[in-house]
Amino acid sequence: MSLYPTLEDMKVDQMIKVQQQIESQYNVPSVPQIQNVPSAPPYSSSMVLYPSLGEYMGLELIREALDENIPEYALATNNVSMTVSVPETSGALAGMVAPLSGQSVGLQRANVTHGIRELILCKDKDGKVGLRVHAVNNGIFVCLVNQNSPAALAGLRFGDQILSINDVSVAGYTMERAHKMLREADVNGIRIVLRDRPFERTLTMHKDSSGNIGFQFKNGRIIALVKNSSAAQNGLLTDQQILEVNGKNVVGLKDKDITAEIKNGGNVITITIIPSYIYDHMIKKMNPSLLKTFMDHSVPDDQGRLCTFF
Question: Using DSSP, how many helices (H) and how many strands (E) does the chain show?
């Protein structure tokens, strides 16, 4: 999971570090905490997530060089006095979460790792795993996960790439051949190895004072961005299909239902998107009613995955 998922987080992080540097140099007395915000964990030089300026693309951007050649930079950073506190966390990443959105449950649920994992499935009483796939660029991708099916319980998601079924690589297989393998597999112990949603990415955005993020969509496809909005500043693009809102699958839902998910999702919204041309290719042979009626739209647990179904 990205520890600094938004531009807003990065700016706040920079202000925190400048404040802590000033306090350490001049022994500035502590400022009262902002109400209802947890106190910031202690900062140490080892807690560095961004590369230092001196390491950026080999350029000489160390602090001494900036002070000598760009004095206005030093003046600007030394005049920062805003106090912002960081939410607490635990474990090895203590103090290293995003200041504004790192604690968002939606961000945790929507995490796309692009990593590889193995699942073990069994068939239901009808002899099915509840999965439909489609071939894209010589790969086999999940395009439908039936609600309450073994595939849904195992945590498969739209866009997952299946690499092998029962230790047989499916690279270059057709959709029909992959479906035949699943049909002919034994009832129990179906071994699926997959890569986590390689065509997809997640973006986290913050609502403004009016409750808006800054983009418009039609039939789930992003068609316009609002200038200087959180969506635009955080790199959202048009011609992208919305797949998830705060980790919840919205494929096949009506626009009003997607809007409701965004409206009720809190001030920090994480969406999972895929290029529209890939999405269209994956569902072009499917009846739209299948996505609306049979697609799993349940909310994942806080770890972003449902339990594996054995």
Answer: 10, 12
Tell me: the pLDDT tens digits for 64-83? Answer: 665 666 555 454 444 433 33
Q: Show Cβ contacts of residue 301 under 8 Å, excluding neighbours closer than 6 positions.
A: 109, 307
Q: Tens digits of per-residue pLDDT, 30-72?
A: 555 555 544 444 444 444 544 444 444 445 555 566 566 655 5
Q: How many Cα atoms are found within 13 Å in the side-chain-facing hemisphere of 24?
A: 10
Selection from 79, 77, 97, 76 nearest residue 88 by Cα: 97
**Distance between CA 17 and CA 50 in Å, rounded?**
12
According to DSSP, residue 146 is labeled B
Identify the residue whose tokens are 């894209």. 136
Neighbours of 159 (CB within 10 A): 24
SS3 at position 193? strand
Show the tokens assigned to 1.
């999971």
Query: What would the two tokens of residue 228 be?
Result: 């200087």
Q: How far apart are CA 307 and CA 162, in angstroms?
A: 18
Burial class (CB in 10 A: 0-12, 13-18, 19+), 199: buried
Res. 85 pLDDT band, cuts 50 70 90: very low
Alpha-carbon distance of 79 to 84, in angstroms, equals 15
Per-residue pLDDT tens digits for 197-229: 999 999 999 999 999 999 999 999 999 999 999
Structure tokens at 51: 């590369």
Tell me what pLDDT residue 233 has: 95
Task: Say if CB 35 and CB 100 are below 8 A apart.
Answer: no
